[in-house]
Amino acid sequence: MDRNTILAIILSVLVITIGMTIQATFFAPSVQEEVVEEAINVEEIYLQPETYSKLPSNLAWGTDLPGSLIALETPAASSPFVYETDIFLITFDPKGASISSFKLKKHLDKGEPVELLFGDADANNAFLLYAGSDRTRPIDAPFDYKIVGNRVIFSQTFAIKGEDVPFTLTKTFTFGDSEYLFQVDVNLVNSENKAIPLSFDNTAYTIGFEPQIGPSFTSIDNRYSYRRFYIKEDGAKKKATITVKNGLYTTEKPISWVALTGKYFSMIAIPDATNYTVTLSEDTSTGIPLESNVFFSRPTIRSADQTDTYRFYIGPQLKADMIPYNDRTSNSFGLSNLFLEETLDSSSWLGWLETILKTILNLLYKVIPNYGVGIIILTFLLKLILHPFTKKGMESTAKMSALGPQMEEIKARYPDNPTKQNEEMAELYRREKINPMGGCLPMLLQFPILIAFYGLLNKHFELRGAMFIPGWIPDLSVPETVATLPFNLPFLGNEIHLLPIFYTVSMIFSMKITQSSSGSAAGSQGMMKMMTYGMPIMFFFVLYNAPSGLILYWSVMNIISVVQQIYTNKKRQKEDAEEKVIQFQSKTKGKKR
């Protein structure tokens, strides 16, 4: 292989390394500044409670014991109802003032809005309240409700059994303007000028998000689907990844937010400044975490009127939808410095390129409803855009090939002086107006596109389940599988993927065609063979489990490059033949004269 190709390989590795370094250094999650919460003006009367229930939390609701919590009102209607915004389709359940279905209208799963509450038939609704620190008996009393503008307001009157002091619990859901973040206010007002008598185990109530974030999945393998907990403590520079041991994790440290993150969507809970106890739990009894829950336990309330405010982001794992909450002028709630984008597993510095590729793919999909065909057409378009650079690279390779005899002459002239060889070759390049790095440019330009394609196929939900060829490539966002072996192959596992094999063959053929056009010296034949077969085989193992859409893109790109190189080679051979004819005719005319 010639020096130019070797440089291309070295630079390819350098581009990936430098790109990741730039991402980690300059595009790492920002250090969160102080979050300025808007305080709700509620007159708090700090009084010592006269009596508190001594019942444990798990007996505080749903029992007839003295000191337990009871509902006093019977609402006129308690059937679930649907509330719709520009981006949400929500089914509210008056029982417990909770949400039983939470769908995103702009993200479709098999043609329908994707469901973001995933659990089994026995799973509780989201945003239920519990008495005290209990997490087993949700307060499922029916609430009265009304819809006022962008707010859904639930209310119910409660009391402690055996006491004659009722208090009103109001839960209000407030939605913004085409935003994935909304607000939940829990307001408690005592009928007398006394502290609200809601205290079990020194805890007033617990609010929970359950079941876990959707969409539905069949297995957790950290590649096709996963669920992860992150916590950002107040004052911390970066998020912390939480490992739930024995199904439970609890912290009483003040936090900025807590996130439950999947491959495509996140639930991020942002509490107010109250010192809540945060509990994260998982149910792994079936081998699959069907429930990943987040709970906030509120300390005893020592006032007659108290409002607690929670904000929840429930939406896609996309930076563009998260960064508006860093600037108070960019969101409906006046929030700033939340840095929700830190929940992303990788805040790609090529997010803008992912967006461009996604937009073009969606436009192509409207014309031809097949994302595989769209990727192929997009590959041709990208190749067309890169053609001027590719053409220059091929011309540079051809010129380098023509200089082969002169380069060998320089090496023979200074066999023991590498410095002099380099000086003479640099002078030769300057004199012939050749850029030795010109052949590397097309390869370098492809790597950002590859990285962006990988992010696109991994993070954009629309490509989940996108079929290309039925029976072979049913999902472009995951590797295609043609067979499953009863045993594991070294480095590959037990799944046989055909596309990586096709890609490897196309890459070997592409490199052979390129090398035949560059005409390397005989002394470099051994290195040439190693790179011709070694690099494609290395990429075969690296990309074996990559999304099939990415392998499809690169395979088509290789095929186009082969066709383009064959055409360039034939054109160059024709030009060389014509030039030799002209030279021969010139010599013949000279002799006649």
General description of the model:
The structure is a single chain. With 593 residues, the chain is of the alpha+beta class. It has two domains: 46-317, Distorted Sandwich (Beta-galactosidase, Chain A, domain 5); 353-403 and 437-585, no CATH class. It has ten helices and 23 strands. Strands 1, 8, 9, 10, 11, 14, 15, 17, 18 and 21 form a ten-stranded antiparallel beta sheet that branches. A five-stranded antiparallel beta sheet has the order 7-12-20-19-16, with no helix packed on it. Strands 2-3-4-5 form a four-stranded antiparallel beta sheet, with no helix packed on it. Helix 4 runs parallel beside helix 10 (548-592) and helix 8 (499-518) packs antiparallel against helix 9 (525-542). The longest helix is centred in the last third of the chain and has 45 residues, at 548-592. The radius of gyration is 33 Å and the shape is elongated.
SSE diagram, text form:
Elements: H1 3-26, E1 69-71, E2 81-84, E3 88-93, E4 98-109, E5 112-115, E6 117-118, E7 128-131, E8 144-148, E9 151-160, E10 167-175, E11 181-190, E12 203-209, E13 212-213, E14 228-233, E15 240-242, E16 248-251, E17 255-261, E18 265-271, E19 277-283, E20 291-299, E21 305-316, H2 319-322, H3 351-367, H4 371-402, H5 404-413, H6 418-432, H7 441-459, E22 483-489, E23 493-496, H8 499-518, H9 525-542, H10 548-592
Antiparallel strand pairs: 1-9, 2-3, 3-4, 4-5, 6-13, 7-12, 8-9, 9-10, 10-11, 11-21, 12-20, 14-15, 14-17, 16-19, 17-18, 18-21, 19-20, 22-23
Helix pairs in contact: 1-7, 3-4, 3-7, 4-10, 5-6, 8-9, 8-10
